[in-house]
Amino acid sequence: MRTGAAGGRGAGSDAATGAVAGAEAGVRPTPGGGGRTTGASGAARGRFVAYARLAKFEFVLDYYLSMLVLWTALASGVRFAPDTLTTLLLFLLGEIGVVSAVMALDDVNGIRDGSDRANYLGTGGTPLRPLERKPLLTGALTVTQATRFGYLSLLWGTVFWTASAVTAPERPMWALIVTGLVLFAGFQYSWGLKLSYRGLGEVLIMGCPLVIVVAPYGFVTGHLPALVLVQAVLFGLWQILVSCYSNTKDISGDAAVGRSTVAVHATARGNLIFIGALSAADLLLTLGASAVGWAPWWFAAALLPEMALRLRQFTSFSRNGDALLARRRGVVAFRTGVAGIVLANLIHFAS
User: Among residues 16, 94, 91, 13, which one has the least CA distance to residue 53?
Assistant: First the structure.
């Protein structure tokens, strides 16, 4: 998935490949036998790290902040109820599986169609981005291993989301439907139906994070207040305001393999207008929610730092066109915004 998970800066391809190979190889066994254990341990650790990188675990931790958002949006008396904690824990475990499946199968497709190689390696194999988060490019994992991991992760997610729904104190039909939609459509971002190749990538990148806020909230309470819906929409908007900058950087590679994004089809000015409209929607929804009474006044006040960072992200990008810098700033804005929502929720239920 073209999210901020695409990675930060780092070493070249030889260094990345060597580091992974060294981790998998471990320490050479010694005659005394002590090195054999160390070698096996090193190999196991290297394989674990490779799978964690395949799942983009370091970055997609941001997705799991959805639990913090919805948990603090619950009334104080509901937050610590045993059935609430059980439902949310099961949903979180399922979420880990579903997100891991999306990321793994996206990488498999990226290897098969050449888009990852185009977006990460320049002419002559020179790294355009650090390769350590792409274990299929470095050779740390094979396509077969990654595909198997993706399917097992999807199965894991299905089992735990089903368990969450079954044990939930409430099961509103809308929550069941949107959970099923994400389960069905999420992994097909680059796999199966390849929805991102059919112009639906941005919809999935925003819609899936939105759902993982509202669905478990519905399983716990049975309803969806305006305040929680606003927070969920912002959670999704903030994700797309990372990914749209990644898509801008990936225009040539995505276009070469037929991935259909706004950045690919729009002119540079049109893409800038699209990103500007999303940024404006973020600010307008935040301020508007407090203005019309969907959220208390301190909601907008708590999100002032996020709004300032959002303005900086867009205005800087419009001047210098540095998509990777804008993406990093989007991640910071996202995390700042989540902290603001959590603060607003805690104040709301303490007042």
Answer: 16
Residue 128: predicted pLDDT: 59
Q: How far apart are CA 116 and CA 47, in angstroms?
A: 21
Cβ atoms within 10 Å of 86's Cβ, excluding its own:
15
SS3 content of the chain, % helix, strand, coil (to 5): 80, 0, 20
* Contacts with 18 (C-beta within 8 Å, 6 or more apart), sequence order: none
Written as six digits, the tokens of 154 are: 């999807």
Residues 112 and 42: their CA atoms lie apart, in Å, by 29
Give the helix/strand (H/E) hosting 139.
Answer: none
Q: Which residues contact 57 (CB under 8 A, 6 or more apart)?
A: 100
Q: State which amino acid sits at residue 316.
A: S
233 CA to centre of own chain: 15
pLDDT tens for each residue of 258-285: 889 999 999 999 999 999 999 999 999 9
User: Quick one: which of 254, 266, 238 has its CA closest to 335?
Assistant: 238
What does each C-alpha distance from 44 to 39, 61, 244 come to in angstroms? 9, 23, 36
Q: Is the dihedral of CA 87, 102, 21, 6 positive or negative?
A: negative
Q: Are 179 and 161 in contact (CB under 8 A)?
A: yes
Q: Which residue has the tokens 């888009």?
A: 115
Residues 51 and 189: their CA atoms lie apart, in Å, by 20
| Helices (runs of H) and strands (runs of E) counted in the chain | 18, 0
Vertex 304: Cα angle to 303 and 306 (nearest 5): 65
Let me know: does 94 contact 157? Beta carbons within 8 Å. yes
Q: How far is residue 270's CA from residue 186's CA, in Å, rounded to a whole number?
A: 27
Q: Contact at 8 Å (CB) between 161 and 180? A: no
pLDDT, one tens digit per residue, over 120-166 is 776 555 665 677 778 988 888 999 999 999 999 999 999 999 999 99
